[in-house]
Amino acid sequence: MASPTPTLPDHMRAQFLDAFKQPYNLRLTLLPSITSAYDLLIKVDAASYCHTDAVLAEGLMKPYPSSFPHIGCHEFAGTVVSLPSFPAAPASQFKIGDRVGVPGRSYHPCGSCFECVDTGRPDSDPLGYSVYCPHALNHGISAPGGFREYAIADSRQIAPIPAGLSAVQTAALMCAGITIYAALKRCGLQEGQRVGILGCGGGLGHLGLQFAVKMGLKVIGVDNVEGPLALARALDTGARILDARVDDPEEIVRQIGNEDGKTEQAEMGLDAVIILPESQKAFDYGVNLLKNHGRCVVVSFPEKGFHISSQALVFRDISVTGSLVGSNKTLREMLEFAAEHQIRGVIKRFPLSKLNTLVEEYHKGGGGKFVVDMALDDGE
Ligand SMILES: [Zn+2]
Ligand SMILES: [Zn+2]
Predict the structure, then answer these.
(1) Domain Enoyl reductase (ER) spans what residues (predicted)?
(2) Residue 358 maps to a domain
């Protein structure tokens, strides 16, 4: 049964970005209003910080945000507090009181472009909705995001939170979780095959180690920074953690080959690697861990891209592919998987008023995820 409609305040607190390269400013503002039959008003319970928020605030994602002031955050979670009252509102599966996770993509897709009508891919969403729609907006980037007490979400883009997952844990999965989960699926591996995760102690990486092991893969994690390495080791997932500063990839490949009983150099190594850091060194390290015909899935997007040798492409038949978030179908699957297998982010929580402190802590590079928890209300 639906909960009664809560009485809502007129105003709410929100963290605004007023200019590039400036701290966020906490102010009171009006609650956002429902403008589409697909909209739901959400009381935000947790809002997670992503690397993309840092990139956007630095002015490196122009033309976004299209205007100031801007409200960041494209991975958050909350509770439905208001439904559309339009006569033509589609029957939404959501009701007042439902706990939902909100990803950045895609808010108000056009419903008619080639992406929105493509239902032929294995992870496609129903007709009329696509996370790839070029006309859709994205929370925290081209539309306001979750660093505020109330937000609007598109009922087609969100996912119910399974029992056993908290809002804080869910928020951290709405970009980082879905991105690494979709990248692991993009590797196209069977249980027992080998995958490497470059940047394994970061926000995506430490979730990836857990997802990959629970998918039944043999996992190697690689990092080159003390804090993230310690975080990855402490997870104790059963994945082998390498320190790229000291572990030689050729030696690792030989060890794996021996373990697998292989005698040919070309058949020794990993079946796939996922590249999370923006560094060529990490990319090269990953490609060097692959056996012939291995697949390299790129998730990061450094300004100058990556270089791969023709030798790797032509003589070793290494394939390179990219991966972006995931469809709503994959998002729901990921959340269910996370709840079932107890995938848990290593999370530092902050109240909304301390978002700038959160950002400072994030830049210290300790790894894991940094999340605004609205329950930590400090009365400001
Ligand atoms: Zn993100
Ligand atoms: Zn579209």
Answers:
(1) 21-372
(2) yes
Distance 220 CA to ligand 2 centre (A): 38
Predicted local distance difference test score (pLDDT) of residue 357: 97
Helices 328-340 and 178-186 sit at what angle, rounded to 10 degrees?
Answer: 100
18 part of a folded domain: yes
How many structural domains comprise the chain? 2
Tell me the CA–centroid distance for residue 237 and ligand 1, in Å.
24
- pLDDT at residue 377 in the model: 77
Co-location of 365 and 304 in the same domain: no
Report the pLDDT value the prediction gives residue 366, as an integer from 0 to 100: 78
Give domain status of residue 166, yes or no.
no
* Ligand 1 centroid to residue 176 C-alpha, Å: 6
Q: What is the CATH number of the domain that holds 17?
A: 3.90.180.10
- pLDDT at 293 > cutoff 90: yes
Same domain, 26 and 57: yes
Q: Which ligand is nearest to the CA of 111?
A: 2
What is the pLDDT, as a whole number, of residue 379? Answer: 56
Kindly report, residue by residue over 319-344, the tens digit of the pLDDT.
999 998 889 999 999 999 999 999 99
What pLDDT, in 10s, does the model give residues 64-111? 998 999 999 999 999 999 998 877 667 678 999 999 999 999 999 999
Ligand minimally distant from the alpha carbon of residue 129: 2
Give me the residues near ligand 1 (ion), CB cutoff below 5 Å. 50, 52, 175
52 C-alpha to ligand 1 centroid (Å): 5
How far apart are the CA of 214 and the centre of ligand 1, in A? 23
What share of the chain has pLDDT > 90, as a percent? 86
CATH code, domain with 201: 3.40.50.720
- The radius of gyration of the chain from alpha carbons, rounded to an integer in Å, stands at 21
Ligand whose nearest atom lies closest to the CA of 141: 1
What is the number of the ligand closest to the CA of 203? 1
Give the environment of ion ligand 2: residues with CB less than 5 A: 109-110, 113, 116, 133
On whether both 193 and 263 belong to a single domain, the answer is: yes
Domain range for 18 is 11-104+139-161+346-373
Could you tell me if residue 187 is inside a domain? yes
Query: Do 146 and 183 share a domain, yes or no?
Result: no
Query: Does residue 48 sit in the same domain as residue 145?
Result: yes
How far is ligand 2, taken at its centre, from the CA of residue 108, in Å?
A: 9
